[in-house]
Amino acid sequence: MKRSMLKQSLPTAAIAAALVCFTAGTARLAAQSGAAKTAPSAQVPRTADGHPDLSGVWWRGADVGGKLPGGGSITAPAGGRGATPPPTFPSLYTPAAAAKAKTLSDKDDPALGCTNTAFGTLNVSLFDVGAVGQIVQTPKFLIMLTETYNSFQIIPIDGRPRRTDIPPSNRGDGVGHWEGDTLVVDKTNFTDTSWIYAEGRVSFHSDAMHVVERYRRVDANTLEIEAIIEDPKVLTKPWAVPKQTLVLAPFDQIMELACSNETQSLMEGAAKQTANK
Amino acid sequence: MKRRALAVLVAGFGALAGGVPVWAHHSFAAAYDTTNAITVHGVISQVLLRNPHSWFVIDVKDASGKVEQWSFEAGTPSGMIRNGYKKDVIKEGAEVTIKGFRARDASQNRGMLRELTTADGKTYGMFGPQEGPGK
Questions:
Q1: Hey, of A105, A263, A274, which one would you mutate to test binding to chain B, going by the most B CBs within 10 A of its CB?
Q2: Rounded CA gap, A60 and A248, in Å?
Q3: CATH code 2.40.50.140 for B4-129
Q4: Would an 8 Å CB–CB cutoff place B56 in contact with chain A?
Q5: Pairwise CA distance, residues A256 & A145, whole Å
């Protein structure tokens, strides 16, 4: 391996700038995490304005490679068990999308080159490419921080309309509103250069993708997330993402870890090798 | 390159059940040949705790003293750390033996790490210490 290949891809300045904005919520976050460890109350924490406070570090009970508290390990959610498994994103491809998918493989996944996913691992956008994410909630914003590829999303929750003057991005632009105790986050304005990673499968999507996620903190330690994804250029109908249940992690700060594209050349080499056989 | 002279023991003991992670952001099976198990002995030159997956880079010396570099892909760094892996526990210069599966692209000296054993006999899997809290 040539060391020159080991270039990092870190949006460090952007992350740092974003984190400066998050300080208002950090004290509450730390207190919340401590309370969660000592008193698993059913009471949902609330902000001063009365809304549920979704702040915290959330996961499925373990990181990748670890064991869940009840046994077993994190695996990609299956498409469903039983006679009629629920549809997956690729199962709803239009004929054109299905034809395009046949020309692509894992090696084409831009995430191998450290590009963030538009909709992330384990069927929630909070994780991006990983299994842990952090939410910091302020009166104006819900801030989602992802660990594996160090991304952030700043989602207004104070009733303002969606911005119309920003370019598309790999993770889209979101705006939120409360429906009772459920926070509804509506994301559009995606590029078509990122992929999604859900149901254990990677897939391309289009710039017309529209993600609506519904976040509900059902008790102090539990966050439920449901989502509907529309992509009229790729899917024949909206994909109803199976509901995901996350729990508070026993730590209150995610890590910032660098990313390198080592795997990309490996996958490309493997694909060439296979094609030559 | 004479692989045998590099102390790289290629042993085709086949795909091992559980040897390939069932969940990753890319298909390990697409990148690595699970019928091509390899064992490499050498000295750590770099440990890269980086996303999406970590890498152990080792210098392997052949009988003539010529050094060739090999790299083995491990787990995502956050998963390794939360399973008890300490960032400085395996340092540059440490003598290790790595068992893994070779990359399908044989032009690259790379593999998927299954087990790393240090000189004092401690073993590490793809996600850190074999005796880690997640095991």
A1: A263
A2: 8
A3: yes
A4: no
A5: 10
Domain total in chain A: 1
Looking at chain B, how many residues does it have?
135
Q: What is the pLDDT along chain A (277 residues), one digit of tens a residue?
A: 443 333 333 333 333 333 333 333 333 333 344 434 444 456 999 999 999 999 999 999 999 888 888 777 776 554 444 456 678 899 999 999 999 999 998 788 888 888 999 998 889 999 988 899 999 999 999 999 999 888 999 999 999 999 999 999 999 999 999 999 999 999 999 999 999 988 778 899 999 999 999 999 999 999 999 999 999 999 999 999 999 999 999 999 999 888 887 776 777 777 776 666 6
Domain membership of residue A238 (yes or no) is yes
Token couple for A239: 């994909």
Tokens read off for B38:
């390899």
Strands (E), chain A: 56-59, 132-137, 141-146, 152-156, 173-179, 182-188, 195-198, 201-204, 210-219, 222-230, 239-248
Asked if residues A109 and A261 have their Cβ atoms less than 8 Å apart, the reply is no
Domain that holds residue A201: 10-68+86-272
- Minimum Cα–Cα distance from A146: chain B residue: B78
Instruction: Tell me the ipTM for this assembly.
Output: 0.77
Q: Is the CB of A145 inside 8 Å of chain B's CB atoms?
A: no
Q: Do A269 and B73 touch (CB under 8 A)?
A: no
Give the chain B residue whose CA is nearest to the CA of A129: B25
- Contact across the interface for A130 and B78, Cβ inside 8 Å: yes
The partner residues of B112 in beta bridges, in order of sequence, read B73, B101
How many angstroms away from the CA of A1 is the closest CA of chain B? 6
| Domain map (residue ranges) of chain B | 4-129
What stretches of A210-259 show up as alpha helix (H) in DSSP? none
**Interchain contact A112–B (C-beta under 8 A):** yes
